[in-house]
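Record 1 of the preview.
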Amino acid sequence: MKKIKLKKKRKFKFRLIVYAFIMFLGYELSFNIIMNLKLVSSNEDFIKALLIDSNYYMLYEKKADDILSKLFSKILDVNKPVSILENTFHFKANDVSMTYVTNPKIEKVENLDVKPAIYIYNTHQSEAYQGNALEGYNIKPGVMMAAYILQEKLALQNIKADVMEDNITDYLNLNNMKYSKSYEASRKFLTDALNKYKDYKLIIDLHRDALPKEKSTIIINNKSCAKISFVIGEDYDSYETNLQVANKINNKIKEKYPSLTRGVLTKGGEASNGVYNQDLNPNIILIEIGAQENTIDEVLNTIELLAPIIGEYINET
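->
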């Protein structure tokens, strides 16, 4: 009898251990999936990952180093939302129902069999937009996200664009430079890029403005869009060449969507930067898309209108 009771106790303890282990694995699996679906390593990683399949707000990743994460990543492909969710993601932004659908025909930027024609960078990488739909993912959309979206939309025009991957904020911090020195920092990285490749037909420093919402927003084709403006410095000898580039693109916008552009602004003198690194190349222009109260959805709507126009300009040059 004692042996039978002892065996039963051992079996009971063994079952408890097995149950506890199964519960632990279940917890780790659930936690790992949630972490992969809710967090990202950085805003830049988010941007790069979400553009892989054109799922603007659903494709992102968080890389974990623990053994269980690596194990479960082999079992469930959390970086492909189609394997977990449907291809269509619905949400509401500013009380307007929005829908984004995966387009299987979209060609990945890195697979474009063409030479890069455009270089996009952000001198003020921290300039942000509104993005209520992204709050649950701890993502603050900004001009860097807009740069990568523009890159992808240009790819649909069979135009390859390179995007600056350098971290200007880190560079400023490491060199004890103030935010006001951002153009000095971006000049360094831009110079490096131009030394590596000299055949860019257009170089865009992508910003957003600081304006009230009513001045930075327009309805086009029943969609809310962020207005565009161009800024050209006057304090360098060849500025008229850069101004011609901005005017050509702006005129094309005015022909199709007159209310979308706020025009081309020229700035110079002591109270202004007056150069904006545009002296480095005659094809450099500064474009401002929207302002601080615009949503990333409005910026996306604008870029969908802008990319084909830039494509026309590139094909004509």
